[in-house]
Amino acid sequence: MTQGNHGADSLLLASQPIFDRANEIYGVELFYRNEAGLGALDVGESLATSEVVYHLSTAITRRANITKVPAFINVSTNLLLSPHFLPVSPSQVIIELVERIVPSETLIHAVQRLHDQGYRFALDDFAFSQQWDGLLSLASYIKVDISTLSPVTVEAYKKRLSHLDVKWVAERVETRAEHERYLEMGFDLFQGYFYAQPKPVYGKKIPASTLQATVLLQALCRPEPELGEIVALIQSDPELALKLTRVANNAFHRQQAPISSLYDVVTRLGFRQLTSWVAMLGLLGEAQSEHAELALTRAKACELLAKEHELNAQDAYFIGLLSTVDLLLGVTGEEFLKGIELDASTSDAILHRAGAYGHILHRVEGTERQFAMHDITLYEDNSSLLGLYHQANHHAQELLASLAPA
């Protein structure tokens, strides 16, 4: 954790603004940072990129402007070739292809696939080597490190590539004279110490153990989840795969046909129930035991009360569970839900206690407080709700015991 004015906040990353010709902020480049002083190459570029994107999407930061403009992010070859790539919208990021990448035919095909999905690419520290010609038509930005090439050389290359539909970015601009020179040359965007140095971004982290569960939740909460994508995401997290297999094979879900694959796990649970389990397992990974019990009790109580009111019990369970992210992760529900595309009624129930499910959540929370305080009026005024809450608490204790490591 950091010291001084940042209190309990952590160092998340660093950001450096990129300006347009009118000196307005066009975007920001994000850099990996950690409190041990290790760089992206020290920890591995794929991990560094994942952490930067994760903090961009989920952490509560002190610098809200980093999410209001496109983020330029360096990406490794492994991540480019991954079938899952980044769990962020193409509108949020511009992918920088750094000079260390070898533009093989396989990589060019991967960039083409991502380009077709709407992702934009910047050729970073571009040195005008012919081996990059296969990527020129897929680039939206060409970033030139002006400290490594003379203005005459850059201008000649820029004229040669004038047929490309790209924005030209001057990197490492350190003086007013350099700014004026590249402005006259027709560059579109500018970055460097003349404008601003990279600044650390501090904030509150969501535990890294929830990263894969959050990505999986995003996929599950789409209008039409893809079975193959869901199975692949589960496969990429062996611990989660094992837990979900145990869940699908326990007394609540056991059927005669044996489970032989993760496809069986997903089809047995179904997308709706799987969504609740993924949320629960992801959120509880770092939670203290008493908070985990409360979260599961609240979720189960919402489910039981929804049944009494002939509402969808699984929806109520999911809403009850996600309403506890402040307790489990130390972040607000609003921040956590930013990256998950929930329908408006579900979000309103969680964030504002609105609608029929929000009313159920509100009643359960009231019972929860009275239960914790041993308020005698609860026994007199609402014994049925107390009984329901006791039942939910017993179920939560049993579930935690069944999920405990052997």
Description:
The chain has 406 residues and is α/β, with parallel strands linked by helices. Helix content is 51%, strand content 13%. The protein contains 19 helices and ten strands. An eight-stranded mixed β-barrel has the order 1-2-4-5-6-7-8-9. Helix 7 links the parallel strand 8 and strand 9. Helix 12 packs antiparallel against helix 13, helix 12 packs across helix 19 and helix 13 crosses helix 17. The longest helix is centred in the C-terminal third of the chain and has 23 residues. It is elongated and about 85 Å long. The chain starts with 9 loop residues before the first strand and ends with a helix. The N terminus is likely disordered.
Topology (SSEs and partners):
Layout: E1 10-20, E2 25-32, H1 40-43, H2 45-58, E3 60-61, E4 71-74, H3 77-81, E5 93-97, H4 105-116, E6 120-123, H5 133-136, E7 141-145, H6 151-160, E8 167-171, H7 176-184, E9 189-190, E10 199-204, H8 211-220, H9 227-235, H10 238-248, H11 262-284, H12 289-308, H13 313-322, H14 325-329, H15 333-337, H16 344-352, H17 355-373, H18 376-381, H19 383-403
Parallel strand pairs: 2-4, 4-5, 5-6, 6-7, 7-8, 8-9
Antiparallel strand pairs: 1-2, 1-9, 1-10, 3-10
